[in-house]
Amino acid sequence: MPVSRILTRDEALAELTRRYFTSHGPATAQDFAWWSGLTIVDVKAGLAMAKSHVVEETINGQVYWSAPPLVSTGIAESTAYLLLSYDEYAVAYKDRRAILDATYAAQAKNGIFYPIVVTNGRIVGTWKRTLKRDAVSVETDLFHPLNEGEMHALIIAADRYSRFIGKAVIMS
Fold first, then answer.
1. Which of 24, 57, 79, 170 has an alpha carbon within 20 to 30 A of 95's alpha carbon?
2. pLDDT tens string 52-87
3. In the chain, how long is the greatest CA-to-CA distance?
4. Distance between CA atoms of 41 and 3, rounded to whole angstroms?
């Protein structure tokens, strides 16, 4: 059986902080406190200890933390995902303004309670499925029209879902 490394409280706090902001960043200190149950004092201590692994950025007056940016290929391509309700992508944040326009928060049930459509990191609609004998119907309720790249990415996301459930997907 593998032996786990024993961490001091400070080492564990620094490691948890690094892992959270690497996997959930950009996120705020309040997001991390909400997600982890830590106090803001502990969150600030964790950020201080993990400072060589996270970067701070202020956007619209709000401080966000994340892992250092990866090297860019210079190619910007749209991405899309069909996520289920309570997906960690939306649940992990106390303040969802960075991923969900406040105009659509009620429609999206704040990005938590309905399955969501995400393009380029932003919640842009909701979706529901209806299982049929040989296929599944996926109906989207988009908050605004998607551009050509986003629509292409949404079709790719539906194809991934089709392969996952082993049925053809009919988009509507």
1. 79
2. 999 999 988 889 999 887 665 555 688 899 999 988
3. 55
4. 31
